[in-house]
Write a structure and sequence with these properties.
Length: 358
């Protein structure tokens, strides 16, 4: 057991056994804050029945006994090669940080709305319960490798991004739904290829992803109660923006990750499938979705990813920082241009699709 706590030496610790959180970049998980007053004043009557039904389902708490560490965890992981351990710890940290970011936002919302909008407050409180479970489960997994995150330290030292409530809805809805598709696809891949299941946490991804799916449905119902967020020209522009931002973030980050390789997956194929599915799911609520089948869509994302990898490689070089910044300018400009070209690909208007009521 003591041996299994051997740490990979390349990680920096804030104190013994506690990992210094990974450096924040544009692509690492964000922490959010919002305008709580505006959220509190929100009138939910337009879709209150559906919201109540979803909250009732949260109360049932299908996964109350799901996140229990069983005997499968009770062994040493020393047989994992050092590089695999390192890549896997990075995956656990990034997942734990993003689950914890959900917890913090939902918990804060439930606290601030408690007296002013009790229905919404209860919904957020139940969402935060699930995210706390997810983050805690991942942090315990990190501890199996001799490192964990100090979530209190993370709360105080992470930067918070302010988003107006409507932007919280668009982006958090998408991250819940993309989370669902990511977890279920990894789960199914490992069911079919169990020899690549390097650690038992992946057994838990099936019921886990159902939590994320329900969370997404909660935001779907919330947005339906505010039709002004979905039915005008600006809504179409913003939905298009957030779809591209969420897809591009995942796509670029995953091109730089070796994690999928250790699970025997092709990360590009995986991302393409996740993007196609999440895009399709979003069409149930967003007035537009992206034309991800457009022949230029993924090739343009590949060009952006190539630029991102070039910038990452330059970060490793001994060139002075100011010189690197100058050297990277053309790459950044071309990434920006390609993202703009992606944004300008004609989207699919869901309000015109037969049989879809918005
Ligand atoms: Fe979660
Ligand atoms: Fe979630």
């Amino acid at each position: 057991m003591v041996d299994s706590l051997k740490k990979p030496s390349s990680f920096d610790e804030i104190r013994p056994g506690v990992k210094r959180p990974a450096k924040e970049t544009l692509l690492t998980p964000r922490f959010y804050t919002t305008d709580f007053e505006e959220m509190a004043k929100m009138d939910l009557s337009g879709n209150e029945d559906e919201l109540r039904a979803i909250i009732e389902e949260f109360r049932v708490d299908y996964n109350r006994t799901h996140f229990v560490r069983d005997e499968r965890f009770d062994r040493s992981w020393d047989d994992l090669p050092a590089e695999t351990r390192q890549i896997f710890i990075e995956f656990l940290e990034s997942s734990c940080t993003s689950e914890f970011s959900g917890f913090l936002l939902y918990k804060e919302l439930s606290r601030k709305l408690k007296d002013k909008n009790p229905l919404l407050a209860e919904g957020f409180n139940l969402l935060s319960r699930d995210e706390a479970r997810h983050a805690g489960f991942l942090n315990k997994a990190m501890a199996d490798f001799g490192l964990s995150l100090d979530l209190g330290f993370l709360t105080q030292n992470h930067n918070y991004t302010f988003f107006k409530p409507k932007f919280i809805f668009y982006s958090v809805y998408l991250s819940e739904k993309i989370g669902y598709w990511r977890y279920i696809k990894i789960f199914r891949h490992l069911e079919a290829n169990p020899e690549h299941r390097i650690y038992p946490i992946f057994h838990f991804f099936d019921n886990w992803c159902q939590d994320e799916n329900r969370h997404g449905d909660f935001f779907d119902a919330l947005m339906r109660s505010q039709p002004q967020l979905l039915n005008d020209f600006r809504a179409k522009l913003w939905c298009r923006f957030f779809l591209l931002a969420v897809f591009a973030t995942m796509y670029l980050r995953d091109r730089a990750s070796k994690f999928y390789g250790i699970l025997g997956m092709n990360s590009r194929d995986f991302d393409i499938e996740v993007i196609q599915e999440t895009n399709k799911t979003s069409g149930r609520i967003f007035p537009i979705i992206l034309d991800v089948d457009h022949p230029k869509f993924f090739p343009l994302l590949d060009k952006c990813a190539a630029g991102y990898l070039k910038i990452l490689a330059s970060a490793e070089s001994p060139t002075p920082t100011f010189l690197k910044k100058i050297q990277n300018l053309p790459t950044i400009a071309s990434m920006g241009f390609n993202l703009l070209r992606l944004y300008l690909i004609k989207p699919i208007d869901m309000t015109k699709q037969a049989g879809i009521v918005h």
